[in-house]
Amino acid sequence: MPHTDRPRRAALLTLGCARNEVDSEELAGRLAGSGWELVEADAGDDGSDGRAPDVIVVNTCAFVEQAKKDSIDTLLAASDVARARGAKVVAVGCLAERYGAELAESLPEADAVLGFDHYPELAQRLGDVLGGHAPAPHVPADRRTLLPVSPVERPAAAASVAVPGHAWLPGAGRVRLNDAPVAPLKIASGCDRRCAFCAIPSFRGSFVSRPPDDVVAEAAWLGMNGVRELYLVSENSTSYGKDLPGGSRALVHLLRRLAQVPGIDRVRASYLQPAELRPDLLEVIATTQGVAPYFDLSFQHSSPSVLRRMRRFGSTTDFLDLCERIRALAPEAGIRSNVIVGFPGETESDVAELEGFLTAARLDAVGVFGYSDEDGTEAEGFAGKVDPDEVAARVSRISALVDELMAQRAEERVGTEVDVLVEVAEDDDLECTGRAAHQAPDSDGECVVERGSGLEVGELVRAVVVGTEGADLVVSPRERLPRRHAALVGAQGRPSRRSGP
């Protein structure tokens, strides 16, 4: 039990995507607003009580099988740490929401398993856990049934439903859990697409856009607290606005507004559906100053027959045409995607078509995934399953091709100029690294700055690409760039640990 003469302490561990990172920072805001102290999970490792947490909250991921395993391993490791200190472990996030009581029964090391509906009263629920009265694990349900079928009716309904990431929910502030100069900013939650391989809509729910004024207000708060790049995240960003008065042009207007936020130098959109990338949106991303010419396109495959079985649209021809249109407007634009191999019914000719597409498309980054059945998805019941060993072989084959193509694409950038946002400063052990406009966090390679630059974290510098290391670029800095639309920032220009916006 925590001491009565100090605030209760919580640590948050986050797995999975940038959307989960935002959820964790909003959960941190709820806890801080209720008087809890936020600490690191390993606080007190020196053997003293120090600032050791009373509760370790693990924000889990359930995207694919490996993500589920990683989440369970993290919960088990957190349990070992907690038990040594008399602390508790609580599972939240997608794995907890998706499996609920089933997860609680199979993982007794977790003292509680809380779903999204517990988020608005998280501080109280954690207090119950510390008091030995953990709430019963929720019973999972298809969250698409919690909101109206019609998108235009959803904003009003969302106010009464625990939809992760929506700032209009009571008490949903945000506390930054790191001091990185880039921050994810959630613009929507949920998805209305029915891809045959994906379970995300069932536990994240139907698509709901955040009001643009809420998004811009949070962006301004981030800009005032040292952030120079915003990374817009959702389950499907190209659907943004379908439930708002601005309709299909809402994201176009939002990007233009965000590009003018004081302190923000770069706005990056992500999770774009190729079939929904309208010409006006393509042009805004490719040509607007302050918006990164970066296209995170969810191709998944290029064979028309595989795509139709996936319940998706497009073809090799369609996707190559889209890449050409992007590069006609912005020759140096970054284009990245994910592909799935081994989908039920995929043939050798389908794999060869995918290879041909990837070779011709010259993408900057590609994530390669092997298909595996996901509980409750349409594809789980498909015939024509590919043998797991063959799936693994195809993953290796496409991954090897992708590595070669990404390295070639990086080499094409030698001699060009890039604007690099520094994220790691040089010291005796580390090189100075950052990212250019065509490189997203964690997935697309990085820029390695020549030693002796003296650059600090958060600086934006114009540099010349002088070499490559696989998909990474080696750059020589030429000019430090001032902040666009300078904002008032916290001490030394770094983010504060207060809630907002």
The tally of domains stands at: 3
User: What is Rg?
Assistant: 23 Å
Helical residue percent band: 25-40%
The level-1 CATH class of the largest domain: Alpha Beta
Named CATH architecture of the largest domain: Alpha-Beta Horseshoe
List keywords for this structure.
disordered C terminus, five-stranded mixed β-barrel, 13 helices, pyruvate-formate lyase- activating enzyme, Rossmann fold, five-stranded parallel sheet, 3 domains, 501 residues, OB fold (Dihydrolipoamide Acetyltransferase, E2P), single chain
Question: Can you walk through the features of this model?
Answer:
By secondary structure, the chain is of the alpha/beta class. The chain has 3 domains: 9-140, 3-Layer(aba) Sandwich (Rossmann fold); 144-411, Alpha-Beta Horseshoe (pyruvate-formate lyase- activating enzyme); 417-481, OB fold (Dihydrolipoamide Acetyltransferase, E2P) (Beta Barrel). The chain is 32% helix and 19% strand. It is built from 13 helices and 20 strands. The protein has helices at residues 18-33, 65-85, 93-106, 122-130, 154-158, 200-204, 212-224, 250-258, 279-287, 304-309, 316-329, 348-361, 388-411, and strands spanning 9-14, 37-38, 55-60, 88-92, 112-113, 174-175, 182-186, 188-189, 208-209, 229-233, 266-268, 294-300, 334-341, 365-370, 417-424, 433-435, 447-449, 460-469, 472-481, 499-500. The strands form 6 sheets. Strands 2-1-3-4-5 form a 5-stranded parallel beta sheet, with helices on both faces. A 5-stranded mixed beta barrel has the order 15-16-17-19-18. Helix 8 packs parallel to helix 9 (279-287) and helix 11 (316-329) runs parallel beside helix 12 (348-361). The longest helix is centred in the last third of the chain and has 24 residues, at 388-411. The radius of gyration is 23 Å and the shape is globular.
